[in-house]
Amino acid sequence: MKTDRITLRPWSDNDAGSLFKYAADPEVGPRAGWPPHQSEEESLEIIRTVFNNATTWAIVWNKTNEAIGAMGYGPSCECSLPSREGEPTVGYWVGRPFWGRGICSEALRLMLDHIRCNTEITSVISGHFINNPASGKVMEKCGFIPTGDIVFDDRLYLGAGKPIRVLRLALSSATPF
Fold first, then answer.
1. Per-residue pLDDT averaged across 11-18, rounded?
2. What is the end-to-end Cα distance of the chain in Å, rounded?
3. Dihedral angle computed from the Cα positions of residues 139, 140, 144 and 149, in that order, rounded to the nearest 10 degrees
4. What are the percentages of helix, strand and coil residues in the chain, rounded to 5?
5. What is the DSSP secondary structure assignment for residue 36, as one 8-state letter?
6. Start-end of H helices in the chain
7. pTM of the prediction?
8. Handedness of CA 49, 52, 55, 61 (dihedral sign)
9. Separation of CA 115 from chain center
10. For FRET with 39, which of 14, 25, 111, 149 sits at 20 to 30 Å CA-CA?
11. What is the share, in percent, of the chain residues with pLDDT greater than 70?
């Protein structure tokens, strides 16, 4: 999946250095509910485990061919979002130097097109910490609608007591972006 600026592709072991470069930033992971990476070895382990599936991709900056973030969907992870039967959770992030440039919205649109064209999924769910409204803006730009639900999830890193705003997107294979 590709645009002029970015490509979504599977992660490889060769991405461990760039993953660590951006995922070690203490401003990045906690906004999405995960701890900053502590070493390149930890980043490699994440690539080989968490990112090792058919629905999680590296967001690659085409100018440098560097992995600058992640985009994916899957079973409603270890979080308390009120998902429906068969409704996957969407998640994404990019490194801080790429914030505010529309990259997550661009990557999310690519992935949603992929889901519409290649799956029978009828809706997806996501959420963002209330203190990270930029993530919610990405979802809303891509058509997600707030459900009105606010959940709290003590299982997410630094998530204890933090409200998560829930959004959902109804999908139709006939209406790609």
1. 98
2. 14
3. 90
4. 30, 30, 45
5. P
6. 16-23, 29-32, 40-48, 103-118, 133-141
7. 0.90
8. positive
9. 14
10. 111
11. 90
